[in-house]
Amino acid sequence: MQTIEANGAVIPSIGLGTWELRGRTCARIVEQAIKLGYRHIDTAQVYENEREVGEGLRASGVRRDEMFLTTKVWTTHFAPHDLERSVKESLVRLRLSEVDLLLLHWPNPQVPLAETLGALAHARQLGLARHVGVSNFTVALIEEAVAASPAPLACNQVEYHPYLDQTKVREACARHGLAMVAYSPVAKGRIKSDATLARIGRAHGKTPAQVCLRWLVQQGVAAIPRTSRIERLSENIDLFDFALSVEEMHEVFQMGGADGRMTDFAFAPKWD
Q1: 241 in a domain, yes or no?
Q2: How far apart are alpha carbons 66 and 62 in whole angstroms?
Q3: Is residue 172 one of the residues assigned to a domain?
Q4: Is residue 77 part of a domain?
């Protein structure tokens, strides 16, 4: 499995996203994914599945130190004491002593960012997380966070797929040595019927989803596709036996625009 290094963190290039996975299905998918070779699992407090993710992790039989596990603090827990307490509760649900990466899930302008980042760094100091980072941060917020954070930030997790141009955010991450982790990397399944990706895929004997994920990995971006289907798990990790040409990479880049965003909420920041 390829990895991306950023400020001390070594992040496997492909992981499993678990948003909307619940109950026994969630535990089973996590267990299967790990047995198939996944070493990077992503969850969050607001997904309400940390307990099941922990169950899947244990059922897989793979040693904890071989796994990279991320969870994310929800915005209502950004006040310093709240943050620490909520992270400890996450660890109880996961039945782990620490996570590998702890992220702020969305920016929250109601709490001064410097205070939240101080609490995040403190959680790391306490040994609750090996690395810390942010999610859904814009260029301006990345600049502010890097300047204010007492601990090095390992990543910015954002929506990224061929339909959404994230050049500015990608460049800001690179400038500050942050990894970029892509959620909804296959555009919530929309890429399945994409003619360009299908054509490129045929040349390599690969599916549109594999082309899409390979495009991300070749940029040095980690991707966390979510699926509830076992057969899709194998497909999403089978990316390391082919490469896209410069022309093919360029062709996929041309598909992106500012209007390709699929995850947007009233509380979202003003996007780049």
Answers
A1: no
A2: 7
A3: yes
A4: yes
Under 8 Å between Cβ of 94 and 53: yes
Q: How many structural domains does the chain have?
A: 1
User: Dihedral, CA atoms, 9, 13, 14, 18, nearest 10 degrees?
Assistant: 30
67, part of any domain: yes
Q: Quick: pLDDT tens for 29-52.
A: 999 999 999 999 999 999 999 999
Residue 155 sits in a domain whose CATH number is 3.20.20.100
Q: Which residue in this structure is represented by tokens 């082919």? A: 242
List the catalytic residues.
Answer: 47
Q: What are phi and psi of 254, to 5 degrees?
A: -65, -15
The reply to whether the predicted model has a pTM over 0.85 is yes
Residue partners of 72: CB distance under 8 A and separation at least 6: 43, 44, 45, 46, 102, 103, 104, 105, 135, 157
Q: What is the DSSP letter of 104?
A: E
Percentages helix, strand, coil for the chain (3-state, rounded to 5) are 45, 20, 35
Q: What are phi and psi of 71, to 5 degrees?
A: -130, 165
Domain residue limits at 106: 3-186+220-227
